[in-house]
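Pasting as-is:
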Amino acid sequence: MPWPTTRNPYFNKFPTGQVLGRAVETNESVWRASVELKAAVYSSELMATQRLVSLDVFRGLTMASMIMVNNPGSWEDVFAPLRHAKWHGWTFTDIIFPSFLWIVGVAMTFSFAKRVERGDDKRRLMLHALRRAAIIFGIGLFLNAFPYFRLATLRIPGVLQRIAICYLIAAVIFLYTGLRGRVIALASVFVLYTLLMQPGGFEQADNFAKQVDTIFLTGHMWSETKTWDPEGIVSTLPSIGTVLFGILVGMLLRSGMGAAEKTAWMFFSGNVLLFLGLAFHAVQPINKNLWTVTFSVLMAGISLLVFACCYWLVDVQGWKRWSKPLVVYGMNAITVYILSGILGDSLSLNLFGGRSLHDILYQNVFLAVASPINASLLYALANVAVLYVVAWVMYRRGWFVRF
């Protein structure tokens, strides 16, 4: 039976009914407020106790994309969006790594905040962060050395190494500052980077980041560049900013706002960052190799917009079935990345009369059914499929590797 209210003309016909109606309407308002409060509390508890599935979806999408662009059948036959920009500018491929760093920041907010709230000692948390960063950095060095282990020319920087460094520094900032301190830290790394880089410019032939890499990393840089490294020393500064952007979004997600309001703020903020990154390209070029401030801001905006879509569809609307394969990838993302590196390097070993298994498969299977550029893409997608099977087995058995 519906609540009787003063909007009912028959109920309002008599004075007693008017008095009772006002009382009942007041009770109805109290009841509705109570229901809304309970819903808000439930939503808050759900966010505190349940895993953010949309983050696993976004992480899985990022990792599957990374495997695809890292493992073509032939580097000579690759679609333009699946290549990095040569210098200034950006492509789809350039979005992938900063998205992963951004995700690290969001995930850190949830994992550390829960431990701080239950009273864990911050020094112990820092030791945990240091241990985790050391393990990830060490695995990155192992992947750079595999399979020949030529330590004299071992590349020191790398994808996992940058993740480790950014994670560790962001952990310090998160654990020992609040919102204001984190915003100041974000602005500080951008300002410091600009002060270091802007006077010398951002051209490939000569820039401050290249000079620093040459001094400290000569003989231990990426073999394709030799005189500078895309994961070099100076460009790590704005990379830390990418993680801090993720931390700020994580704070928004853990707030008491409603899901619709959170989504609206994410879409709004993402578009603002997107605009700022593109608008200031003329002042400081968008450049992934140097990880310029404009690149960091632009990529944070794109990450935020993609994640906002995932969040609204998966966690708010509950449309989860389509996302299961991405969740499978996302739950063991770094493990899959490590296996991808080992698999790719192993397939490239010349073990069959001077030929590698990679060449044999690519030339006799993939080139036999498609044009070179499509065969190259099919080979990359085959890598994605094979590693998905591995990730699926791990998921089904409950094997979730945590570093």
